[in-house]
């Protein structure tokens, strides 16, 4: 299954002490247990599932941000993302924020393919001892985010669950000729990002260290899917690939490069940084800008002569597009240019299970 | 949100002792907690959410088995259902069964509207200490069920979770003129069901009492969505309403009647009973046939002179359709005719949270 929308920085807040194993039903664990999910990590787990399922039923396979099902001149885009209380929800995140969040992260996948959303379903698993107001607040947050982005919740499911678990599924449409895939980047293309990076990571560090940087916490709790920007880029005709950087810029560059058969050189000083970074001096800036997630901006590659056109299209929608590097012929690793020196851009970000 | 696909009987197997409250993040519980989800129950919880979200964005609103989004001459049908390890999974259910199950219950909703499936997404939350083989088996079960019913898994999400949680979302298409809704039943119509009822409940009792009735356990673990039957009924032109009876026959009759503004009289002796019922003598037959769930058959109403045509259409697809009663003008309750006597058909089934 596609490696979609991983809330990098949020996850570090999960309880350090795992609950004792015997609280869970381990009837299915084999006695020898040669390989556990924590041994292989999330990306290999995804590969394992993909090999079982992927039989060319769908044009994009299972490795892009969305599934795409041909429907007349359009693709029906579909994406699903799960968040749950103990692995994704930092202390201080309200049920309203959770509702907003699950809708926003699912719309972000539609945005990254250039799609226009047509609705979402949300399955909610809630403990029976929770307040009715908790449920109402989640629904209000879901509704507010969906409506802000011109769509609505079409349905869902409500089940009893031991931990709060929200699973959104978003649907959208994009003309077949306009879809932006992860594959498609070519040597010589310009690499660009929408918005500012690092805001969500600043929110995480603000919460962790009690710094009270409210704007950054808002960025973390209530991300804004770049739907207008994605549609503008897709319609501009100059974007060659796109994905959202929910799991961090560095790891996203590697995912686009793997899908496209290219490499990238990123110029560190060009990365548009969220203003709040100046208040988080105790964390290396590269950790925040390159290896933290939760920003839900778009990473896009653009034809060599198309950047001005793409930026103008995004600006007309009220967004920002910043050039941060270029696509090069495939090499072993991606590069980071910083202070005039060429360094390794590491291929890392958060992985579930590890 | 729609009251979709509740696994009535399965739920009784959940651990009786809830985990202590302080293992969970209760930061959001208000100190006075006037109303908890366990106080209002699932159906009222669904009403609460629906009031917040339902603003006429979609033709069916939020109260049918699927959402329906107009797409040319068709409706795009979408449904989502969550199952999780500790509230839905009986001891003995393998990961392969879980994978099959989450696909089957989601396809059942498409079936009940007369739709043809075009794909599913499945979000999987898994504990990091689980075996890789566990994940592979889930994927194999998902894949097997999807392929048996002519569709495939289009994508999904894999996340770390403290309990196994699977959320499927199914998509399908149905011609606008052919969709079967919950509303549409009229006084005088015939009430019918596909297949046999009570098999899944027998499987539950077999597991609970160690009776080893393998065929019934199979019915419980691996339900078969009635897609061919649903499409045949929809195309026959004589079906006036339909839903799946995943949460039990009695409660489903009330849901169709509420949506249609009618009542029903069900003849107990006409209900087609699974053969395994003869082996579960210690449970009243009406509990199994009327008030247990997990069967995933279709409850359908048919125009007064259309039953032969509908049954023939279902038979051509290899299915069975049995007349079990009739639609009458709206009254306070539905009736059960048994041994020549008219009794109350109770409006009950499993509710989450209670």
Please describe what this structure looks like:
The structure is a homodimer of 354-residue chains. Chain A is of the alpha+beta class and 354 residues long. Chain A folds into two domains: 8-177, PurM-like, N-terminal domain (60s Ribosomal Protein L30, Chain: A); 181-345, Phosphoribosyl-aminoimidazole Synthetase, Chain A, domain 2 (Alpha-Beta Complex). Helix content of chain A is 33%, strand content 24%. Chain A contains eleven helices and twelve strands. Chain A has helices at 8-11, 37-53, 85-88, 95-112, 132-148, 199-209, 214-221, 227-236, 249-260, 285-290, 307-316, and strands spanning 67-71, 74-84, 116-126, 153-160, 165-175, 190-194, 239-244, 263-267, 298-302, 321-328, 334-338, 341-345. Chain A has a seven-stranded mixed sheet with strand order 7-9-6-10-8-11-12, sandwiched between helices. In chain A, helix 5 links the parallel strand 3 and strand 4. Chain A starts with 7 loop residues before the first helix and ends in a 9-residue tail after the last strand. The relative contact order of chain A is 0.17.
């Amino acid at each position: 299954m596609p490696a979609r929308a991983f809330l990098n920085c949020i996850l570090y807040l999960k309880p350090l002490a795992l609950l004792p194993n015997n609280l869970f039903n381990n009837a299915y664990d084999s006695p020898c247990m040669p390989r556990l999910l924590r041994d292989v990590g999330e990306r290999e787990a995804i590969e394992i599932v993909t090999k079982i399922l992927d039989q060319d039923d769908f044009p994009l396979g299972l490795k892009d941000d969305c599934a795409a099902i041909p429907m007349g001149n359009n693709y029906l885009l579909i994406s699903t993302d799960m968040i749950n209380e103990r692995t994704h929800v930092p202390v201080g995140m309200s049920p309203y924020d959770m509702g907003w969040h699950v809708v926003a992260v699912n719309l972000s996948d539609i945005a990254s393919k250039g799609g226009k959303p047509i609705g979402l379903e949300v399955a909610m698993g809630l403990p029976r001892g929770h307040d009715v107001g908790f449920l109402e607040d989640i629904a209000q947050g879901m509704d507010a985010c969906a409506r802000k982005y011109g769509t609505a919740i079409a349905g869902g499911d409500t089940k009893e669950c031991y931990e709060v678990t929200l699973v959104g599924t978003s649907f959208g449409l994009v003309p077949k000729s306009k879809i932006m895939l992860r594959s498609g980047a070519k040597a010589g293309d310009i690499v660009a990002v929408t918005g500012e990076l690092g805001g969500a990571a600043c929110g995480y560090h603000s919460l962790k260290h009690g710094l009270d940087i409210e704007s950054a916490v808002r960025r973390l709790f209530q991300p804004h899917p770049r739907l207008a920007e994605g549609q503008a880029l897709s319609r501009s005709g100059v974007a060659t690939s796109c994905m959202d950087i929910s799991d961090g810029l560095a790891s996203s560059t590697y995912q686009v490069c793997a899908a496209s058969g290219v490499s990238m050189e990123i110029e560190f000083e060009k990365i548009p940084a969220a203003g709040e970074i100046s208040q988080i001096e105790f964390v290396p800036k590269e950790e925040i800008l390159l290896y933290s997630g939760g920003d839900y901006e778009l990473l896009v590659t653009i034809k060599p002569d198309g950047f001005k056109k793409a930026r103008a299209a995004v600006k007309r929608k009220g967004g920002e597009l910043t050039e941060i590097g270029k696509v090069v012929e495939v090499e072993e690793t991606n590069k980071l240019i910083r202070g005039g020196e060429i360094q390794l851009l590491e291929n890392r970000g958060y992985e579930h299970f590890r």
